[in-house]
Batch of 2 targets.
Target 1
Amino acid sequence: MPRFCPTCGNSSDKVRFLGNFCESCAKAKLLSALPKSVDITICKRCGRIKAGKSFAEPSGRNLEVAIRPQFGRCKVHLIDYDDASAMLDVSDDTMHGTLSVETKVEIVQKKALCDVCYKKACNYYEAVIQLRGNGHKISKFIERITRFFDLNNEFVTRIERESSGGYDVYLSSKRLAQAYLSRSGLHSTNSYTLAGVKNGKRIYKNTYAVRYE
Ligand SMILES: [Zn+2]
Ligand SMILES: [Zn+2]
């Protein structure tokens, strides 16, 4: 006995069925239930996009990560995109089989400040490395630590020249400052200044004094 699609009347003798509906009506139903636009959060300073929990370079891969959760249980694969829209391949695993459709969505840009740019904007710092002694070694150190912080998504807040000829380097992360110093095997004299209390925890700013011979 052939079945008939309740939407278009097509018979299961002629076309493929998925559950009670013919395949093309099942696809149309899926298409109409999918979002027509997606929200993408973009940092207005650096242009990175929010992909998952953190901000990342605006690549196709990261755009796909940002779009995926907006499609519920469906699998989403990015086919093509520009600033304003994205072409997606969306598939839904139903109990009667997998349905796949292509759909174009509008990209709605939401401007924000990413965590890094926000900290930069308020001159945030957690640690200071005080460099004294050999000027050549000091400039090499500053070059290297700037690159290291960049690569790890942190930054040098500012660099101050001291009257003695030394430099104070203000850094956005004490964890990273500590990691850099132990990695480069430099001996430092450390001190800790209470900067405030946050959620009942004492917050310290760390100072590392390094002397080059
Ligand atoms: Zn139909
Ligand atoms: Zn940013």
Target 2
Amino acid sequence: MISNAFQDPTSAAAFQTAAWAFWVLTGLCLGSFSNVVIHRLPRGRSLVRPGSHCPRCRRPVAFYDNVPVLSWLLLRGRCRHCEKPISWRYPLVELLGGLLAAAVWRHWEGQWAWAAAALAALIALLCVAFIDCDTFLIPDELSLGLAAAGILLSPLNAGLGGAFWGRLGASVGGAVFGLALCWGVAAAGEKLFKREAMGAGDVKLLAGVGAWTGALGAFDTLMLASFVGAGYGVWLLASGRIKRQEPIPFGPYLSLGAMITFFYKLPLGFPFNL
Ligand SMILES: [Zn+2]
């Protein structure tokens, strides 16, 4: 008798578990790669060569010391050779990569192509958040890359609604709307407060986000980012952690807002979705 693996309940469950493990492990590895991107992209260094090495003693990191999260825990956050501490941010970014992959697969289980595309975009947003925190810059490779990839992959994006041309149109429209909206708000903010609140990097990033989430998603992302960013900024000021004129990067809030908008349609687009 010929058995079909997908009709046999035990194999189907095993396949499901294997798929979950595959996505979470992929996410952890992408998180590990994000650490490389976050460190090297703003410095204009190659993302491939040389391989991972300790930033202090320059010795290469062996593959068994490069297992996401686990190696950091086993080495108790220290380099095997020079024993200098390795920032907790490395395992955090790896863990976030794994969590994003789990969230993607929970949301779009079975949709392999779209899940891969969405995860790549979310990983790019993760890199943007940390790079902007470190450098106050958002590399064009990530913001414009998101815009280009979002438009190219829009036929896979069921969240944009419609069929091929509808999705493509919604993606291009979302990018243009995101760009115009963020530019408008940035220009108005500069006039009002006489200082730059958002930079060109933020404007290009919201165009990238719009290409994936559509116009309403870009709007929701900016609203969410403003709420969370303003709230956090007020808390920083009130607790005396920053001074009034000290700039805080906006990219991390845009990235966070975009990540939420990727999964959930919010009622924040209220004036437009009546
Ligand atoms: Zn070292």
